[in-house]
Structure formats: C-alpha cells, structure tokens
Write a structure and sequence with these properties.
There is one protein chain. With about 60 residues, the chain is mostly helical. The chain has a single domain, classed as Arc Repressor Mutant, subunit A. Helices cover about 55% and strands about 10% of the residues. It has four helices and two strands. It has a two-stranded antiparallel sheet with strand order 1-2. It binds FE2/S2 (inorganic) cluster (FES). The site of FE2/S2 (inorganic) cluster (FES) has 10 residues, from loops.
Length: about 60
Amino acid sequence: MYVCVCHAIRCRDVKEAAGQGACRAAEVFRRAGVKPQCGRCLATMRDMLDEAAPPLLAACAAE
Ligand code: FES
C-alpha cells in the first residue's frame, strides 16, 4: 500500500526507513531522494514511525 502517492513511497519503505533509524517523515523523504509535495501523507507517515520505533523516537526527542 502506498503511503505517499505523490512519490510512490510504500508502507514497507517507511518501515524500512524506521528500521534504519529514521524517526521523522523528512528522513523518509530524504532517503527516497524527494521532497514532500502535497503533504497529505505526513500524518500517516508520522504515525507509522511512532508505531515502528517508540524507543527510537524517545532518543530522537532527546536530541
Ligand atoms: S502524498 Fe506524500 S507528498 Fe503528496
């Protein structure tokens, strides 16, 4: 399933990015080599990152 239809970023792409340490939607876009376009996917992407790596998010929040 696509999370970001503007750039064809799939659920597995977001999960993979989270597994590699991404804790912000901007990092998912950077890894895909694109920038957000319409922004409709941002809330979903943030939710997925929150669910994928809560301990990582705590570490990111501490930065
Ligand atoms: S759906 Fe992701 S930027 Fe448009």
